[in-house]
Write a structure and sequence with these properties.
Elements: H1 3-20, H2 25-52, H3 59-71, H4 75-95, H5 102-109, E1 113-118, E2 121-126, E3 135-138, E4 148-153, E5 155-158, H6 160-163, E6 169-171, E7 176-177, E8 182-183, E9 188-192, H7 200-214, H8 221-244, H9 247-257, H10 260-279, E10 282-284, H11 287-295, E11 298-302, H12 303-307, E12 308-319, H13 325-336, H14 342-353, E13 361-367, E14 371-376, E15 379-384, H15 386-392, H16 394-404, E16 410-416, E17 419-430, H17 434-443, E18 448-452, H18 457-467, E19 471-473, H19 478-489, E20 495-499, H20 505-510, E21 513-517, H21 523-528, E22 531-533, H22 540-574, H23 580-598
Parallel strand pairs: 11-18, 11-20, 18-19, 20-21, 21-22
Antiparallel strand pairs: 1-2, 1-3, 3-9, 4-7, 4-9, 5-6, 5-8, 10-22, 12-17, 13-14, 14-15, 15-16, 16-17
Helix pairs in contact: 1-2, 1-4, 2-3, 2-4, 3-4, 3-9, 4-10, 4-23, 5-7, 8-9, 8-10, 8-22, 9-22, 9-23, 10-22, 10-23, 11-22, 13-14, 15-16, 22-23
Length: 603
């Protein structure tokens, strides 16, 4: 895109140098004529094709000026217009470069091979060869290739790609698993209930693809102003012709009316806005996203990892006498420190953060996804789900029943020497400042703010109450989120979607603006989003909206100032006081003023 404006500059300078060296006006004229035709004809053809397709935009007056310059053999003025036109396009292309790899990244993560059991054999087959009823071995560390039901084995799986929830779920015979889930620690046999192409992960890929393809392109700010400025220009040209009958006077009007402020103001302002956002660790992928940010008036948030920190933390410890809180954590942490389970690591981290020194655990036995037993300081310790204690420490379970009955949330129960010692409660902590972010969006005019999640209604409602969101949706699949975003947008609202996980990618792609929080990686969500926040700060979301609004406000101001100056120059040219060459140079002065004003978006 830079080749054409650079060539125009070279040819303009070459002609001026030739004239300065006394080579002759003929040579200079020939150089400029060549540049005008080589670079101008493609612009004329493209504008003509646009008109045939019903597109009326800011390029029409420029095309008329170039064509008139060709007819009247005024190459200098024509080549100046070509330079402004091609330079504006290069800036716009730079500002609106598209980011693209969302679908490819999703497909790259999908498994290619499945381990199919046939009689006493285990065969590796392409996932496309899976049929309903096949028995598949899913090893630890492998992604589930298709939807199915566990028929043998026990493990726990990471479903965060699908649900967005960080806590692993237990997988045992009878447990349904969806494609895209990651097996963590034990081999399981899965009976396929759907083809790979019809399973959930494949549907997520397709949702992202279709959402991106169906996004309507934004009308350029410049084109909206061109709708009324172009007829005014043509009317002034008609007046100039009626007054003088001089085609050069008409060309002079067209040259100063060429909407370079329209062509340049928006891309320059957008580049400045993108750079300003980048300094705040907000990556705006293309200029259209910045325009859309200026227009959004409704927001949708994912819960886990967006409004919450996305990982469990110990929120409370409830010891039973004679155990203290520190003693409970010390003994439980001793037997859990060798476990790879997320909650075990969380408990150990909580103990260490409190300055508790953990004794070594011995005789450790871990029941995958349920609990751990072992010996610490010569005492028999069991930590795990309530059902785990019912099975292995029934007397302790009876003592702990009062802590278990009627509780919500996630808990681990602890028994020591067969005695109930207490429980540890976990929760996904709400991000600091989340409520302030919601309030700030409302002050920016967001009438609708929603919280959508794959988590349970109780957890979603609790988070919504704390951050001040009234509209919620729980137990939602990725497709459900897309539908909720579409429903919100159907009322002429422009929706901002904020998320952080693979399961959010389809909704991010389908919203007017998708914002991904990528401080901890971002992955597919970052690829599918229009805006990526690189720091762990939710407050950058309303800040991005403010940057978008300020950028477009300055762009519009630059356009109006530039068009006002051009209109004044048109009157002077129509009266015969300004020729085409002088008009082209005056237009350059106006362009510089417009560019300098538009560059205020950088600050």
């Amino acid at each position: 895109m830079l080749f054409r404006p650079l060539l125009a500059v070279v040819l303009l300078l070459a002609g001026l140098v030739a004239g300065g060296l006394g080579v002759g006006t003929g040579t200079r004229h020939l150089v400029w004529i060549a540049g005008l035709y080589v670079l101008g004809i493609p612009l004329l053809l493209r504008t003509a094709r646009g008109l045939l397709r019903g597109r009326f935009n800011a390029d029409l007056v420029a095309a008329l000026a170039i064509l008139t310059a060709m007819i009247l053999s005024q190459p200098f003025a024509g080549l100046i217009i070509v330079l402004m036109q091609t330079g504006g396009e290069a800036l716009e292309h730079y500002a609106e470069r598209r980011a693209s790899a969302a679908v490819r990244a999703l497909e790259a993560e999908a498994p290619r091979i499945a381990h199919r059991r046939e009689h006493d054999r285990l065969d590796d087959v392409p996932v496309e060869a899976i049929v309903v009823g096949d028995i598949l071995l899913i090893r630890p560390g492998e992604m589930v290739p298709c939807d199915g039901i566990v028929v043998a084995g026990f493990s726990h799986v990471d479903t965060s790609r699908i649900t967005g929830e960080p806590l692993p779920v237990s997988a045992k015979p009878g447990t349904p698993l969806q494609s895209g889930a990651l097996n963590l620690d034990g081999p399981v046999d899965l009976r396929a209930t759907a083809l790979a192409a019809a399973s959930l992960y494949a549907r997520i890929v397709e949702l992202v693809r279709t959402a991106q393809a169906s996004k309507a392109p934004l009308q350029r700010v410049a084109d909206r102003y061109a709708v009324w400025f172009t007829p005014i220009t043509l009317a002034v040209c008609a007046i100039a012709w009626a007054l003088s009958g001089d085609p050069l006077r008409v060309l002079a009007v067209l040259v100063v009316a060429t909407p370079c402020p329209l062509i340049l103001a928006t891309p320059v302002a957008i580049i400045g806005g993108i750079n300003r956002a980048a300094r705040r660790q907000i990556i705006v992928r293309h200029g259209g996203a910045l325009e859309a940010l200026a227009a959004v008036d409704a927001a949708v948030f994912d819960k886990t990892g967006t409004l919450t920190v996305g990982r469990p933390e110990v929120t409370s410890v409830q010891p039973l006498g004679p155990f203290s809180e520190r003693e409970l954590l010390r003994l439980a942490g001793a037997v859990e420190q060798g476990s790879g389970h997320l909650l075990a690591r969380t408990l150990v981290d909580a103990a260490v953060a409190r300055g508790i020194e953990l004794p070594p655990g011995t005789e450790i036995t871990e029941t995958s996804g349920r609990g751990v037993r072992g010996v610490a300081d010569g005492r028999r310790v069991a930590v795990g789900a309530f059902s785990f204690l019912v099975e292995y420490e029934p007397a302790a379970a009876k003592a702990l029943a009062a802590l278990h009955d009627g509780t919500t949330g996630l808990r681990a129960y602890v028994a020591v020497d067969g005695q109930g010692a207490g429980s540890v409660t976990y929760a996904d902590r709400i991000r600091p400042g989340a409520a302030d972010v919601v309030l700030r969006l409302r002050r920016l005019g967001f009438a609708h703010v929603q919280l959508l999640s794959g988590d349970s209604l109780a957890n979603v409602s609790a988070v919504a109450r704390e951050v001040g969101i009234e509209e919620t949706g729980a137990d939602l699949s990725p497709l459900d989120k897309v539908r909720r975003v579409a429903a919100l947008a159907s009322g002429s609202r422009r929706v901002l979607m904020v998320g952080d996980g693979t399961n959010d990618a389809p909704a991010l792609s389908s919203a007017a603006v998708g914002v991904a929080l990528a401080a901890h990686g971002g992955g597919i969500a970052a690829e599918a989003a229009d805006v990526v926040v690189l720091v762990d700060d939710l407050a950058r979301v309303p800040e991005a909206v403010e940057i978008g609004r300020r950028t477009i406000r300055i762009a519009r101001q630059s356009i109006l100032v530039g068009l006002g100056l051009s209109a004044a120059a048109m009157v002077v040219a129509a009266a015969g006081f300004l020729g085409p060459a002088a008009g082209a140079l005056l237009q350059e002065v106006i362009d510089v003023a417009v560019i300098l004003n538009a560059l205020r978006t950088v600050r």
